[in-house]
Amino acid sequence: MKFFKIIVVLLIVLSGCKSKQEQTEVVSKKPNILFIAIDDLRPEIGAYGSEIAITPNLDALASDGLKFNRAYCQEAICSPSRASLMTGARPETINVIENFTYFREANPDIVTLSQHFIQNGYEAVHTGKIFHKPAFADLDVSWSRTPAEDKMTVEMSKTPGGFALKENQEMFRKNQADMIAKYGPNAPRNGLGKGPAYEKADVPDTFYEDGYNAALAIATLKDMLEKNPDKPFFLGMGMKKPHLDWLAPKKYWDLYNPENITLADQTSGPENGAAMGLHPSFELRARYGIPKKGPIDDDMARTLKHAYLACVSYVDAQIGKMINALDEAGVRDNTIIMVWSDHGWHLGDMGIWGKATNYEIATRVPLMIWTPDMPKGSRGKTSEALVELVDMYPTLCELAGLELPSHLEGQSFMPLLDNPEKKWKKAVFSQFPNPALREWAANPLSQGMRETYFGPLIEEVEAKIKKQQGDKWNRDLFEKRLMGYGMRTDKYRAVIWKDYINPEKEPVFVELFDHENDPKETKNIAEDYPDVVKELINQFNKGWKGNLAEI
């Protein structure tokens, strides 16, 4: 009996040890990452103060996580922004400053964010748009598997232009055919021959791509947990809206009363601003039914903003479904959720429609993070720290306990999760090559573009630049080498226009905006404050390294 009691005690002790070991394994298991990308979303979210946007799921995430009020992209266009944040390096470092340069061809050996997680034992997969085109860019390197298409119960719609309505499909087909017949087979490369800018149709969420990709992300989550439950995952869910075209199910349009939709109140460019700082809204004007020149009238502007908002609510609903799936799968308590947009968007602000500028409205983005172990005092808080999308790579690495690759050019903002009010970066940086004399993919103007209906607009904006710049005008410089560098400090935005091939040369032009007194950047005050300009140029010359937070 005594021996039996000893055996029982030993079994209890061993059982207790095993339990502790299992607990340690649970605690030490690396966190999962849910990486949610949204395309072309400015901070038009309830949590960011929008008085009209209906975004309950993003608002709920912000109320329980940490929201960054001053987060900025590195370039306000898709490919450079996404390539930068996914490689953790800045656009000029990776030689991606327009949409047609594929980052991997320019940087064969660079280690991307998801690739680094794979190298550290993660399963990495994505649905929708994370990198720019193609949809599954860098599949064999940045992703360890494909999404669970075989688990889907609905098929992806493959209608012309993605439209649901037959009349819009036919319009898209016809416009493409007409454009090719008139301008040749390369016309679609420049985004010409489009259908309408928006559509509302009484279809299920999964008809349009974001609804389908959200359902695919959920199916993939379940598939990963079923096949390999003990392996941490990096799951990217890319939402294409509110990128043009603004296609969303009718129920999301019906959330809004058009009479309550307010329009931009600043409908002209900054006083004394750079003539090359704004573009002629090429991307929107390529759509059917949009005026090819001149202003967008108020009725159309209200419809367009309504379409944008409907897409924002549509995307918000998909994000809510994904987060609910985490809860239902029982993995929320070990998953870090990061939500970001690749750049902002002018909705008539400064008189233009689109991204692709160096101003606040195009470079400031929503960015929020939720972690299971975030301090209670930080939950629901808003940080005013200056942060950048290039900072996400080192932040996620640090949160997951991974070493940081040596090539990174961002700074982990993990300390802000403990103290959102901590003193942080002195400045953040973005850039964009001459918006006025570039196509909307940021590539230099093609002859074909000049021969289209955009020709007169190009001539008009070129005349304004010549008038403003005088003897500084040089076609090769302004069309191919002029870069606007935006630097945002706590108080100011400076846009320094330079020849990026010859950076040692003096700036061609400088813009200065006082955000304490002029948050909408209505007036360039550079000529009135030369000492401030000199000080900011000195700060700019220190680069991103010279403006990091002191830890």
TrEMBL record:
Q: Which family does it belong to?
A: Belongs to the sulfatase family.
Gene Ontology annotations for the cellular component aspect, listed alphabetically: cytoplasm
Q: Where is the Sulfatase N-terminal domain?
A: 31-401
What molecular functions are annotated in GO for this chain?
iduronate-2-sulfatase activity; metal ion binding
What's the protein called, per UniProt? Sulfatase
Alphabetical list of InterPro entries matching this protein = Alkaline_phosphatase_core_sf, IDS, Sulfatase_CS, Sulfatase_N
Keywords, in A-Z order: Calcium, Hydrolase, Metal-binding, Signal
What cofactor is this protein dependent on?
Ca(2+)
Q: Keyword Signal: yes or no?
A: yes
Give the matching Pfam families: Sulfatase
